[in-house]
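Mods, move this if it's the wrong board.
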Amino acid sequence: MSGGSNKAIFGAITANVAIAVSKFIAAGFTGSSTMLSEGIHSLVDTGNGILLLLGIKKSKKPADDEHPFGYGNEVYFWSFIVAVLIFALGGGIALYEGIKHILHPKEITDIIWNYAVLISAILFEGTSLLIALKEFNKTRGNSSFYRALVDTKDTSTAAVVIEDSAAVTGLVIALITLLLGQITGIEYFDGIGSVLIGLLLLSVSTFFALECKSLLIGEGLSKDDIEKINKILSEDKDVTAYKKPLTLFFGPDEVLVNLNVNFKDGLVSDKIEQIVDRLEYKIKEKIPSVNRIFIEAETILTKRKKL
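Not the wrong board. Structure tokens:
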């Protein structure tokens, strides 16, 4: 999935660089706090894209003596950093700017700049979002969008989807509040727009940080995947009993599976090796993300059952 992640991230970075520059120029001409918040948002998203690429690159480092299972979790660490940056820089600064302009409102000038930049930005961000969604949907299956977003282990692609979705939503908020301010003549709408964008980013970053945290502290396979492993073990004629599989993600496509299995009595070592190879093949066939399986032969179990 790293190739797809890279494509989505490069698309997001390209869009955000162009949009950030145009937003800051518009903010300079108009004095709009909403536009300034949006410029900061795009700048943060650009930096986040670079951090995600760094995380993907580091996660591909081969295993060594200090990290025998590899560096797959690097992508989760850098995704968590991205979530924090969205919270602290994107959401925090937008909220600050909004409150400041509500307390001390000022007239927005050259408003046509804002409209031109916002409409262009929606088109650019929308294109970037479509690219990210295309990559995300490749592994989504029949799950709902929200369920797939919660369940995905490819946090780099998820980060781009979340950021771009927030960006498009933020741009729509900015456009609506700008229009309301022009129609009503109420200067507070500019600051209100910035506050709403800040709250949006704080909510998004909190959601994403919690998802990354779960993977960082040791998340395992889903219940459905565990049931697939149980089914394989229960249906094998040479397995008489087994304990609950222990699993752990070391990256989007790197999963460790530990099994305690009781084999039929009287089997010679060569036969047990064949059974182990058979079980490993079936598990990897059903769950392609599993790349390491350790099977320990138990002698204390006597019945075919899951303990």
